[in-house]
Amino acid sequence: MTLTPIVGQHDAAVNTVQVRVGVNEHLANKTLPAEFYDRYLSRAAKNRQPDPNPASDEIQLELSPQELAVGLQYSLTRGLPDLQEWVYGLQTTSHGREKDEGWSVSIGAGSQDLIYKAVTALVNPGEAVLIEAPVYAGVLPIFQTLDCEMIEVETDAQGIRSDSLRSTLDSWPASKPKPKVLYTVPFGCNPTGMTATLKRRLEVLELSREHGFLILEDDPYYYLYYGTTPRPPSYFDLEKKQPEIGRVVRFDSLSKVLSSGIRLGFVSAPEPIVRAMELHTMMANLQPSSLSQVIALKLLKTWGYAGFRAHTERVSQFYREKRDIFEVALRRHLAGLAEWTTPEAGMFVWFKLLLGTAADGGPAEDSESIIRTKAFEHGVLALPGTVFLPSGRKTAYVRASFSLLPPDEVNEALKRLKVAIIDARDSA
Amino acid sequence: MVKALPAEFYQTFLSDAAKERKPSPIRGLYPLEAKPGVISLLAGKPNSTTFPLDGVKLTARDPSSSSPVEIEIGGAQLQEGLQYGPTAGLPCLLEWVYGLQELEHGRKKGEGWRASIGSGSQDLIYKAINAIVNPGEPVLVESPVYAGVLPMFEALHCEMIEVDTDAYGISADSLRKVLENWPASKPKPKVLYTVPYGCNPTGMTATQERREAVLALAREHNFLILEDDPYYYLYYGIGARAPSYFALEAQQPEVGRVLRFDSLSKILSSGIRIGFLCGPEPIMTVIDMHTAVASLQTPSLTQTITYAILNAWGYVGFKKHTESVSQFYREKRDVFESAMKKHLNGLAEWTSPEAGMFIWFKLVLNSPDGEDDSEALVRTKAYERGVLALPGTIFLPNGRKTAYVRAAFSLLPEPDVNEAVKRLRDTILDARQASA
C-alpha cells in the first residue's frame, strides 16, 4: 500500500547533531560533599548497588541519523512518542501514577503553552476562576483575556489557605455557577516562595471533590525543593487516595532544571482535557519542536531517571545555597525594615517593606512607588508585589529573585534597599 | 523612499481581542535596568549554570561544496539559546531576517514594519488572524486553500468569502466582482488570505499581473493581504520569478497593507518549528503580546541552532541551498507528471505546478449525475486498490463536493510513484465502469 503523504520532506540540510552535556564546572565546585548526605540517606538507599553508568563528568551525545531525521521532520501534536513514554515513566517514579488511570500526557512548548491551552479548554469567557494570590504574573493575562472573574484565594507560610477557600465556596451564591478551576503553584510559588504543606493539599483536594472544581497544579519548581522536612507529595500523587481520580491537571516544566530556552513542558491530565488541548494545538502551532524534543530526550534517556533525579538534586542544592546567601544578607541589612518567610523551594523571596505609616494613619502599603523612586535612585530594583495580585491592588511586598546574583552584588543590592527604605520612611 | 501608512490606520483593523491586550507590567520595568550601576533583582530567570548542556556541535551540508560544514555552538551563544529570550525573537536571528528581506524583497527597516520569529509560520498566521479578525466577520480566502488555515477562521465563525483561482493564481477579476458587489450596509472584509507561490493544494503561482491587480484592490477596498509564502524559495518555473506582494507594495503610494509570512519548514526543517512574520508595527506589537501570554517566546535554542546554520552559510549559501531544494522538487514533479501522462491520459486533468510540492488534478469519472466526487472514490475504491490521495473537498472553505484530489510528490521514490499512479488509473477506470 502506498500512501501519498500530506507533507513533504527534503533531504535534511542538517546531517548530524551532537550535544555536550555535563555538570558545569562552576556547579561542580559548589556541590556539597558526599559525606554531607550520610544523615539523609535511608538504609534502603545505602544498601543499593552502585549504578554502573553514573551521570558524571562530561558526556558526548550524538543523535543517530534516525533520531535526527525525527527531529527535523513534522511529528505528533502531543509530542514524540518516546518522550511521552519518558514522561509516563517519570510520573510513575515521582508521583506513583500509572498509565491506565484515565490520564494522558502531552508535551508542550513550555508549561506556559500548556497552561494557556488548558485554561482555554476549560474556562468560558466571563466565568469565575479560583486563583491563589499572590500568583504567577504570567498567568493573569490568560484569565484576563477571557474576562474571568478572578476569585483570590489567600496564601500564607503553609501555602494556599484551604480555610479561606472553604469559606469562599461555602458562601457561594446559590444562583451563580461555582468556579470550575483552581490555579495553584504548590512548590516555591512564584512570587511568595511558599510551599503548600501536606495538610493544606489534602484539604484542597477534599474541597475540589465537595465543590466540583479541577485543580490546575502548575509545578515548575517541584524539582527545586530543598526544605529540611520531607517533600510533600504533589496533588497528582495525593489524588490517588481519593475515591475517584481525575481532578488534577498537572503541569511540569523543564525550564528550571534543563533549559528555559529550549521551551519544553508536559501536562498530565484526564484524556478529554488533553484531547481538547490537542485540537487547539493542531490549529494554533501544530506541535512542539521536534528537534528540541529529540535533544532533550537523548539527554534524559542517557541519564535515566536516577540521573535525572541526581541532577535535579544538585540544582536544588545550588538554589538552596543561593537562598542562604540572600537570607544572610536580608538579616544583615533589612532586619526591622522588612519581613519575610524563608522559602524552601524555587528561586524567590517575597518580603514586605516596613515603610512606616501612610498619610491616613494606616500602614504604608505601596512598594511600587518606592521601587520606582527611592530604590531606583539608590541603584537597586526589585519587583513590586502589585503585579502578582489579580486585583492589582497596592501592596508593601516585593519579590526578589536570588537565582542570578553573585554574593557581593546581593549584599550591595540589599544595602542599597536598606538605604532606600530608611529614606522613604524619613520622607514620609 | 517608501511612505508607510500611519499607526492610526490600523485602529480599524485591530480586533477587539487585540485592543484588549496589555503589555506585561514586569517588562515595563526592564528599561530601568539600563541605568548604569543599577543592581536588579527583577528577573525571575533560572541560573543557566544549572543547565547541563555545555555545547552543541552539528554538521550541516555546505551548499557551495560537497563537504559538510561543522558548526559549534558554545559560550555566550549557547547560553543565549538555553535561557529565556525576547518575545519577538533573538536579536541575531531577527537581524538575519531583516537582511534577507532587503536582499529578496527590497524592503528595509524604517518603513513602518518589523519582524517577529514564530514557532512555524502557522503560529504567526494564527496570531495575525486573531489580531485582526473579530468573530463573525467576513474574510476573503482564495479557494482552494491550505486546509490548515480553515480551522482558524472557523473558530472565529468567520464568513469565508471564496475568491476563485486558476492557472495564473488568484483571480483578480473574481476578487473585484466580490468587492464591487458588496452590500453597502455590510462592513467589507478586512483581510485576504493567499498563498502566492505553489499554493497548497493547487500548486499554482500567481503572476505579477495578478499580484499587482490584487494590491490595487487592497488599496481601493481597504483590506490587508496575508501573504503566506512557505514555498517562495521552492520556485522552479522557467519564467522569471514574480516579486512577492511584500516587494511589490513598495511601488504603491503607501506601504503597510501586506503581512508576509515566511517559513523554514520546507527549506531547513519542518520539525524545528521556525518561521517569521514581517508586518506593520501596530499589528506586530499585538501579536507579540499574544505570544507573551500563550507561550512566552519561540524557543531560544532552536533559534540559536537555526541562526548558527544560516550564519555559517551566509545569504549566498542560503540561496544556493534553496536552489538545490527547488531543483530537487522540480525533478520530483517531473517524475510524478510523467507517470501521470503515462497512466492518466484522459482520466485526469491538471495544470503543471511551478513551485512547491503538490499536484492538484481533477478526476474525470464521467458520473451519470455529472457530479464527480473524488472523496467518495478515495475513501472506497482507491483505498481498496492501495493508493491514497487527498480529496479536494478539504481545501474548499465551504466544503463542497469536487472531483479534484491533491497529491504530494515530495516523498515517493520513482517506482512507488509509478505504482501509485497506475493504481489510481485502475481506480478511475473501475469507477467509470461501475457508473456506466
Automatic annotation (TrEMBL), chain A:
UniProt GO BP: alpha-amino acid metabolic process
Protein known as: Aminotransferase class I/classII large domain-containing protein
Keywords linked to the UniProt accession: Aminotransferase, Pyridoxal phosphate, Transferase
Native species: Ceriporiopsis subvermispora (strain B)
Classification of source organism: Eukaryota, Fungi, Dikarya, Basidiomycota, Agaricomycotina
Domain Aminotransferase class I/classII large as annotated: residue spans: 73-417
CDD domains cross-referenced by the UniProt entry: AAT_like
Homology family: Belongs to the class-I pyridoxal-phosphate-dependent aminotransferase family.
Keyword Transferase: yes
UniProtKB/TrEMBL annotation, chain B:
Domain of life: Eukaryota
InterPro entries: Aminotransferase_I/II_large, Class-I_PLP-dep_aminotransf, PyrdxlP-dep_Trfase, PyrdxlP-dep_Trfase_major
Cross-referenced CDD domains: AAT_like (cd00609)
MF terms in GO: pyridoxal phosphate binding; transaminase activity
Biological-process GO terms, alphabetical: alpha-amino acid metabolic process
Keywords (A to Z) from UniProt: Aminotransferase, Pyridoxal phosphate, Transferase
Cofactors that this protein relies on: pyridoxal 5'-phosphate
All copies of domain Aminotransferase class I/classII large, residue ranges: 79-424
Family: Belongs to the class-I pyridoxal-phosphate-dependent aminotransferase family.
PANTHER family (alphabetical): AMINOTRANSFERASE, KYNURENINE_ALPHA-AMINOADIPATE AMINOTRANSFERASE, MITOCHONDRIAL
UniProt name for this protein: Aminotransferase class I/classII large domain-containing protein
Organism field: Ceriporiopsis subvermispora (strain B) (White-rot fungus)
Taxonomic placement: Eukaryota, Fungi, Dikarya, Basidiomycota, Agaricomycotina
